[in-house]
Specification:
With 278 residues, the protein is α+β, with helices and mostly antiparallel strands. The protein is globular and about 60 Å long. The longest helix has 22 residues. Strand 8 and strand 9 form a beta hairpin. The protein has a 9-stranded antiparallel beta sheet with strand order 2-3-4-5-1-6-9-8-7, with helices on one face. It is built from 4 helices and 9 strands.
Length: 278
């Protein structure tokens, strides 16, 4: 969805991307304690002058070989021994960059504020900087090494429609798989859907692509928009850093192709699609 996607991927001059999340999950660093975070922030502080504490995220794994279960509310009861782990947010001064760290993952977010989407390659390079700093810190403090067990790529797209103040009722202009039911005699007020695609490599399932679409409000103008979220999650071929980064690239490519396939030629024109359309 970038303005200059490599390797023949679909490309757009004005993609509707409002957030990109690159997440690397790894085996638990049992020696990393909350008390160490001050030392870590001292290394991050030039790039990330702001810090926040957040609740930790639960481990998230894609599993294969059994039918997917419907989403059900879950309840978790825990008995803590000592202080529970915390997730730390390290933020840039302009709030566009966010590095999240807890004892089983590192995440980099790019968030749209004033400027345009800077392309995947930029966000990936920022994650690499975060990783370099984090791994140097782990070595210096003798806290273990990173063994990656899951990667996740997420794109959040906020889509408005030119010429209408109710994109919730005109989803057929956005999503190519949706057809307006004119025969029902009523206007579509809004719509939400979710889809999950099984991804395979050499015939073996190794990831899933999760897609959700829902009505939303633009945060600054409160205009009605359509929010299209796409998340690719899976396990790298190996637990080393190069395998994890390679799978991030594969996930990004899968999302870009799926985004182009699922959205309409009319929206492609609106976003300035520049590659040769298939």
């Amino acid at each position: 969805m970038s303005a200059a996607s490599p390797s023949g991927l679909p490309s757009f001059e004005r993609p509707p991307v409002t957030e990109v999340v690159l997440s690397l999950q790894f085996d638990m660093l049992s020696e990393l304690k909350n008390a160490h975070i001050g030392y870590l922030w001292s290394r991050f502080r030039d790039r990330y002058p702001k810090v926040q504490e957040q609740p930790s995220l639960e481990p998230s794994f894609e599993t294969f070989g059994t039918p997917p279960m419907a989403q059900q509310p879950s309840f978790r009861f825990e008995q803590f021994i000592g202080v529970p782990a915390t997730r730390y947010w390290f933020e840039t001064a302009d709030d566009t960059g966010l590095c999240q760290v807890q004892n089983d993952r590192i995440i980099h977010n790019w968030r749209k504020r004033e400027g345009d989407y800077p392309r995947y390659e930029y966000v990936r390079a920022e994650l690499e900087k975060d990783l370099n700093t984090f791994e140097e810190f782990l070595v210096a403090e003798d806290l273990g090494s990173l063994r990656f067990n899951q990667i996740e790529v997420s794109y959040i797209n906020t889509i408005d429609l030119p010429g209408t103040d109710n994109p919730h009722g005109a989803v057929e202009q956005v999503i190519s798989t949706w057809t307006r039911l004119d025969g029902v005699g009523r206007d579509l007020e809004d719509i939400a859907f979710r889809a999950r695609f099984l991804m395979s490599k050499d015939g073996v399932p190794n990831a899933r692509l999760h897609v959700s679409l829902a009505p939303a409000l633009e945060t600054t103008t409160l205009n009605r928009v359509v929010r299209l979220d796409m998340t690719y999650r899976g396990k790298p071929e190996s637990n080393d850093r190069s395998s994890a980064m390679k799978m991030l690239d594969e996930g990004r490519a899968a999302i870009v192709v799926a985004f182009a396939d699922m959205t309409t030629p009319e929206m492609h024109n609106h976003w300035g699609r520049t590659d040769v359309q298939r």
